[in-house]
Amino acid sequence: MLKIIIMLLEEYLKFRNESLSKFGRRANLSRSSVCKIISGDRFPSPYSMNLIEIATEGQVRANDFMKQYQEKMRGEQQR
């Protein structure tokens, strides 16, 4: 059985004890962009997803954002 591990960006930052600002600098994203992505107010562009994947050394991947988005959409449909 294949087990897929999804790491959300928020979990990654907590695990590394890294601030939004510091991560934003490393990923070449603004603190505001990182905050909006984490809160779900903004879905990251393919370019931003790539920057995040590189900055996290593959621990947070584009597919992780898609899974998070799908779960959010399911929740909205059930309302």
SSE string: HHHHH
- Uncertain segments: 1-5
Distance between the termini: 33 Å
Radius of gyration: 13 Å
Largest sheet: none
Please provide the count of β strands: 0
Question: Strand portion, in percent?
Answer: under 5%
Structural class: mainly alpha
Overall pLDDT score: 86
Helix count from the secondary structure assignment: 5
Please state the overall shape, judged from the principal axes of the Cα atoms: globular
What percent of the residues sit in helical stretches (DSSP H or I)?
Answer: 55-70%
Structure characteristics:
79 residues, mainly alpha, 0% strand
Lay out the secondary structure.
Blueprint: H1 9-16, H2 20-27, H3 31-39, H4 46-55, H5 62-77
Structural overview:
This protein is an all-alpha fold and 79 residues long. The chain contains 5 helices and no strands. It is globular, with a radius of gyration of 13 Å.
